[in-house]
Design a protein that fits this description.
By secondary structure, the chain is an alpha/beta fold. Helix content is about 35%, strand content about 15%.
C-alpha cells in the first residue's frame, strides 16, 4: 500500500516493489525495493512525465530531500520524480554485516552480492517502470555511479528511456579496475597539491597528524582503528566543491594539550569516524571494485595493488623527509576490513568478491554505437572520482551523446549547481542549445 504525505512544496509517496534477486530466475527468491515519489504540491493531480533518479555510490540510498533543494526543484517544474533506493540500500532489503549472515557463510554472501551491480539495478528499474508509468518510457538522471547504471540502461533496455542525463558518471567501457586506479592516483596528487596551494598551513598539520598515528595506536569512539592509511583517505573530500574548505577546518582542530602531551582531540576523532565508517553504506566497500568487473580477470584489490606503483603516497617514506604528505580518495583497500568494525565480519566475503573471475559485461558497445536515445552528460574537468579522459572516450563511443565539459563544478555539481546543471542537460537532449 502506498502512503502519501507532505513536506514544504511537495507531495511524497512511499512506494515498495518486489523484484527477483536474480533476474535470470524470475520465479526464484525475491527482494524488496523502496522508492520515494516526489511531485510539486501544485502539480500533484496532473499527469506528468516521470524522471527516475539513480544515486551515486555504489551502496547509498537516494537523497532524503526536504522540500525542493538542489536539482530537484528544477525537475519538479515538469516531472514526477522517483528517488530509488537501489537494491541493498536505504529502505530496500538491506545488505550489511547484520543481514548478510542470513545468506550463510562468506561464499554464499559473495554469491548473493554478485546481484548488486548495475545490470541488476537496471532490470529492477525496468520492472518498476512498467508498474508505475503504464509502460511509457521515462527520463533517467544518473549521478556518478548512477551514471554508470544509466550507461548500462542504454546497453540493456534503451526502449525504457525517453532521455538519459548523466552527471559525473561516464565510465570507461572496457577498462579494468587497474586502469581506473592508474588514472586516479595522479589525479589525486593534483587535487592534494591544489589544496596545499590554497591552505599551505595544512602541509605541516597533515604531517603532524600522520606522524602521531605512526607512533600511537588510536581507536576512535566507534571502535574504528585510525591508522595513517585511514587518515590519508580523507582526500576523498577533495572531490566536492566545498571539500578543500571542509578538510581545512577539520585539520584545524586536530590536537589538544593533555597531561600526557598532545593528543588527537575528541572533536577531531568524532569527525574522523563520521568520515571513515562504512556502517551506513557497507556495499560501497564490498562491491566498489566489482562495478568495474566485466571479464575473467579478478579485480584483486586493484586500488591497493596499483597504489604500490606510486611510492609518493607512502606516508612513512614521506615523513623521513620534509615534503608534503599525499592523501588518497575513493579507493577501497583490504585493510579497511580490519580497521572498520562495520566491515570486519565481511572480510572473507570481500576477499571472495575480489578473486571472482566470472563477471558478465555491463556495457554493449555495439548497441551504444547505434544508440537512438537522447543522451547528455556533464563531464567535470579533472573530476576526482571519474577520469575525464575515460569519460570523453566513452562519450565518443555512444551515438548522439552530447557532453558539457566544465570546470565550474566538482563531482557534486548536480548538488552544488543543480538547477543550472539540469537545465543545461535538458537543453542538450532537446536540441535547444
Amino acid at each position: 500500500m502506498s502512503v502519501s504525505y507532505r513536506q514544504p512544496g511537495v507531495v511524497l509517496t512511499d512506494r515498495r516493489f518486489t523484484v527477483p534477486l536474480d533476474h535470470a530466475d524470475p520465479r526464484g527468491e525475491t527482494i524488496g525495493l523502496y522508492a520515494r515519489e516526489v511531485v510539486a504540491s501544485e502539480k500533484a493531480d496532473q499527469d506528468l512525465p516521470w524522471l527516475l533518479y539513480l544515486q551515486g555510490g555504489p551502496g547509498f540510498g537516494a537523497n532524503r530531500f526536504i522540500g525542493r533543494p538542489a536539482w530537484l526543484g528544477r525537475a519538479l517544474k515538469e516531472f514526477r520524480v522517483l528517488l530509488l533506493d537501489q537494491r541493498g540500500t536505504g529502505h530496500s532489503t538491506p545488505a550489511n554485516r547484520q543481514t548478510l549472515p542470513l545468506r550463510g557463510g562468506p561464499a554464499e554472501q559473495a554469491d548473493y552480492l554478485t546481484h548488486f551491480r548495475a545490470d541488476s539495478i537496471v532490470r529492477d528499474c525496468e520492472l518498476i517502470r512498467r508498474e508505475i508509468t503504464g509502460g511509457a518510457p521515462w527520463t533517467v538522471l544518473g549521478q556518478s555511479f548512477g551514471g554508470f547504471c544509466t550507461l548500462t540502461y542504454l546497453s540493456l533496455a534503451p526502449e525504457g528511456l525517453a532521455a538519459a542525463l548523466i552527471t559525473g558518471g561516464l565510465p570507461a567501457l572496457d577498462a579494468h579496475a587497474d586502469d581506473v586506479y592508474r588514472a586516479a592516483y595522479p589525479r589525486m596528487e593534483r587535487k592534494v597539491a591544489a589544496h596545499y596551494a590554497r591552505y599551505p598551513q595544512d602541509v605541516e598539520r597533515v604531517r603532524r597528524i600522520a606522524d602521531h598515528l605512526l607512533h600511537h595506536e588510536v581507536t576512535l569512539p566507534n571502535g574504528h582503528r585510525l591508522t595513517v592509511e585511514a587518515f590519508q583517505t580523507l582526500g576523498i573530500l577533495l572531490g566536492g566543491g566545498e571539500g578543500s574548505h571542509r578538510l581545512h577546518h577539520l585539520l584545524e582542530e586536530a590536537f589538544v594539550p593533555t597531561p600526557d602531551g598532545p593528543a588527537l582531540s575528541d572533536a577531531f576523532q568524532e569527525e574522523m569516524q563520521n568520515h571513515l565508517s562504512f556502517a551506513g553504506h557497507p556495499l560501497y566497500a564490498l562491491v566498489h571494485e566489482a562495478v568495474y568487473g566485466q571479464d575473467s580477470r579478478p579485480t584483486a584489490w586493484a586500488a591497493e595493488r596499483v597504489r604500490a606503483e606510486f611510492p609518493q603516497f607512502d606516508a612513512a617514506k614521506t615523513l623521513t623527509g620534509d615534503g608534503p604528505l599525499l592523501l588518497t580518495g575513493e579507493t577501497i583497500h583490504p585493510w579497511m576490513f580490519d580497521t572498520d568494525p562495520a566491515l570486519r565480519p565481511l572480510r572473507e566475503t570481500a576477499e571472495l568478491l575480489a578473486a571472482r573471475t566470472d563477471w558478465p559485461p555491463l556495457y554493449d558497445a555495439a548497441r551504444l554505437a547505434a544508440n537512438e536515445v537522447p543522451v547528455a552528460a556533464a563531464v567535470y574537468h579533472d573530476d576526482l572520482y571519474v577520469d575525464t579522459a575515460h569519460s570523453l572516450d566513452t562519450a565518443r563511443a555512444v551515438r548522439g551523446l552530447r557532453t558539457w565539459v566544465t570546470d565550474e563544478f566538482e563531482h557534486d555539481g548536480v548538488r552544488a549547481g543543480g538547477p543550472r546543471v539540469l537545465d543545461r542537460l535538458l537543453a542538450l537532449v532537446r536540441d535547444e542549445v
